[in-house]
Amino acid sequence: MHNAMPGKLRGQSTRWVVAAVAAAMLVVGGCAQLAEKERELTFRVVPGTASWFDGLPAGAQDLQLVVTGDGKPQHIDAWWWPAAAPSAPAVLYLHGSRWNLTGQTNRIEELHDFGFSVLAIDYRGFGKSDGDLPSEQTVYEDARVAWDRLAQLQPDPAKRFIYGHSLGGAVAIDLAAHLSATAAQSGAPVPAHGLIVESSFTTFVDMARAVAPAWVPVQLLVSQKFDSLSKVAQLRMPVLIVHGAGDRYVPSHFSEELYQAAPEPKKLLLVEGATHNNCLRAGGAEYLDAIRELFALSLPAPTQEGKSARL
């Protein structure tokens, strides 16, 4: 299965962030309707099925996870795509803004081809999941519920991983920091073996500050903080940070700053020739080698097509 995302669908970060900041400036004026508009512009949810989606991958299952929202159960739509080998490591896939699961098949397929079993979710407000509009808090909650399911699907903590792309990288870092802090408080081992963050940023405020006029106090205006920079320093698991060197949507210097803030063990991979959405495919063997090296996984060598055999 291969789904090619058309180039014209790539977002423009300047317009996205400026619009969110403009809405946030009006939020300070006290309008709850505009606070909702800020969230709408932050997540930019595209309803329906992506035009390039050609069906659920063969062998993948559609699952429903339950989370409590507004005092009642709500459902999170998820895909579970087990690897051929029962002993394979499993990864929780957390996507970014705009596209639901039907727009994520390229990256999900690449992780599966690397040898991972993949659990991928749509946050509430995306795809077939319940809810009207996501928020920073609800996507964090959804990721934690999904992690609990991944722990059931893969009982071995040494074979559990977290992956986040773009805005999903901030969600992944929050989850990894939460697991690290909880383990530290209880004196228990961290229940995850590693974290992969691709094409993400330090904080949403930093993204806004990079494009907003210098006089705008964006740190006071933006309510959706996504402060990955402070959280990444709290990690107690290996972290692989990946970015396309040609990313014009989220500049790669954000990943370099995340890397500097993260504790060891860590690795930074800047993929030459890659943009915002294609690091896994463009990186190929280099990406897989970085996973193998940092996480000490016995992954097979890539095939001539740049993919590995199943674990």
Structural account:
By secondary structure, this protein is of the alpha/beta class. It is built from eleven helices and eight strands. The chain has helices at 13-27, 32-43, 105-113, 136-153, 167-186, 204-211, 218-221, 228-232, 253-261, 279-283, 285-295; strands spanning 61-69, 72-81, 90-94, 117-121, 160-165, 194-198, 239-244, 266-271. Strands 1-2-4-3-5-6-7-8 form an eight-stranded mixed sheet, sandwiched between helices. α1 runs antiparallel to α2 (32-43), α1 crosses α6 (204-211) and α4 crosses α5 (167-186).
Question: What's the structural blueprint in terms of helices and strands?
Answer:
Elements: H1 13-27, H2 32-43, E1 61-69, E2 72-81, E3 90-94, H3 105-113, E4 117-121, H4 136-153, E5 160-165, H5 167-186, E6 194-198, H6 204-211, H7 218-221, H8 228-232, E7 239-244, H9 253-261, E8 266-271, H10 279-283, H11 285-295
Parallel strand pairs: 3-4, 3-5, 5-6, 6-7, 7-8
Antiparallel strand pairs: 1-2, 2-4
Helix pairs in contact: 1-2, 1-6, 4-5
- Poorly predicted tracts of residues: 4-11, 302-311
- In terms of quaternary structure, the protein is single chain
Q: Please tally the β strands and state the result.
A: 8
CATH homology superfamily: Alpha/Beta hydrolase fold, catalytic domain
**Sequence of secondary-structure elements:** HHEEEHEHEHEHHHEHEHH
Largest sheet: 8 strands, mixed
Overall 3D shape: globular
**Helix share, percent:** 25-40%
- The name of the CATH architecture is 3-Layer(aba) Sandwich
Q: How much β-strand is present in the residues?
A: 15-25%
Q: For the record, what CATH class applies?
A: Alpha Beta
| Helix/strand class | alpha/beta
Please tell me the total number of domains. Answer: 1
| Intertermini distance | 19 Å
Q: Strand order within the widest sheet? A: 1-2-4-3-5-6-7-8
CATH topology: Rossmann fold
Count of discrete alpha- or pi-helical segments spanning 4 or more residues: 11
Mean pLDDT: 88
Radius of gyration over all CA atoms, rounded: 18 Å
